Amino acid sequence: MTPRAALAGLLLCLLPVAGAQARTVYECLRDNRLSLSTAPEPGSKCKPRRVNDRKAKVPNFWGDQGPVRGNLYTTRINGKAVYSTRAIRGWKEVAEPVKIRAPRDSWAHEGYGEIGKPRLDVFAEQFRQAAKKTGVEDAWLRAIAHAESDFNARALSPKGAQGVMQLMPSLARAYGVADPFQSAQSIDGAARHIRDLMRRYKGDLVLVAAAYNAGTGAVEKYGGVPPYAETEAYVEKVQALYERYRSALKKPVARKS
Hints:
Strand content: 5-15%
Distance between the termini: 39 Å
Low-confidence stretches: 1-10, 12-21, 53-69
GO molecular function: peptidoglycan lytic transglycosylase activity
Shape: elongated
CATH topology of the largest domain: Lysozyme
Mean pLDDT: 81
Radius of gyration: 20 Å
Order of helices and strands: HEEEEEEHHHHHHH
InterPro entries: Lysozyme-like_dom_sf, Transglyc_AS, Transglycosylase_SLT_dom_1
Strand order of the largest sheet: 2-1-3
Keywords: Signal
Number of domains: 2
Family: Belongs to the transglycosylase Slt family.
GO cellular component, one term: membrane
């Protein structure tokens, strides 16, 4: 059984049996993340869905909607126990995390950098020039470089991503980057790619980070952040680093309304 089917089965096991094999669960969307709940989640856009208990064990049960991810949480609403796969403040965790690894042909990887002190001295002029040329914020470019390679211009990921900005070979070719291990070329090419992603996702930095990590195809497939453990960890890392770099550069953090 796949992790997503196991989680779906666990959620259904917690629903009360009413004699029939079809039950109702809710697909809930918030902040571009899909979850399942046994009742509409407060603050999410939810739609009911009738579920056959037996089908919960079928590997492709969730189909194009993408696998459900995360832990299982519970609370009581109007005296009734409610369960959700989304971490909601005040709800109690009742299951171990279920993580889905990215497919072998995916670009997704967590990156070599860790959340830590901003490094403003590495390739500083190259970041400034790329930011000026493309309009992509200097702090965002640095956050990506930090998360991707920890500023190692010779970095090579298991997926084949190369250089300080960890460009995949096909992406490097698309942006005319002749030598992805040359830092100025890598940063310039990545900045142009990020500019295009920001236009595509209307400035939504969560989707920009997800697409940079896993590709636009994966974001389109899942209608938001792909549920890969690598991508989810990467997006959180970049967001945290972005705040630190903006603070270090004396600028307030932009927040999408």
